[in-house]
Design goal:
Number of helices: 2
Largest sheet: 6 strands, antiparallel
Shape: elongated
Strand order of the largest sheet: 1-2-6-5-4-3
Strand content: 25-35%
Order of helices and strands: HEEHEEEE
Radius of gyration: 28 Å
Oligomer: single chain
Number of strands: 6
């Protein structure tokens, strides 16, 4: 037989063997799980469960899906308490990022241990300054308290 024919046959056999092995391996190995995660952030206009005080600023970054426990405003301040069953670490990162995205300056201070953590975000922007406190309540709930004062310009 001609060497050229033998080389072509060997090449075909090699290609079939390699592709067959790959198919066999793919059949025996489950495909990798592709996980893509988009971080949740607090944002203005986020949907919350419950009623906000009518004069709550529209551009206040709120944690999406949180439940309103209390919402009060005065002419120079507003406060808001939300609860969520989202993980403390997720809520903390998301609330901080949401305020930063909205142009607030944010300083963070954290304390506690797993199951009883708390964090204070000192926030400021233009004529507004205050605190957002996140508390891990131990029952899988995170409480988010906003207290913001508005100074006259």
């Amino acid at each position: 037989m001609n060497r050229r024919v033998i080389a072509v046959i060997a090449l075909i056999v090699l290609v079939l063997a390699v592709s067959g092995c790959q198919r066999l391996e793919q059949g025996l190995t489950p495909p990798p799980k592709v996980v893509t995660e988009k971080a949740t952030r607090a944002m203005s206009g986020a949907q919350v469960e419950g009623d906000l005080a009518a004069s709550t600023p529209q551009d206040l970054p709120l944690w999406p899906g949180a439940e309103v426990v209390d919402s009060t405003t005065t002419e120079d301040a507003y406060s808001l308490t939300l609860t969520t069953t989202d993980a403390f670490a997720d809520a903390l990162s998301g609330v901080a990022a949401g305020f930063e995205d909205a142009g607030w300056t944010v300083a963070r201070d954290e304390a506690g241990a797993e199951g009883a953590r708390s964090a204070i975000l000192e926030i400021s922007r233009d004529s507004e300054e205050g605190f957002v406190t996140l508390t891990e309540l131990g029952d899988g709930t995170t409480q988010i308290d906003y207290v913001v004062a508005v100074s006259a310009q």
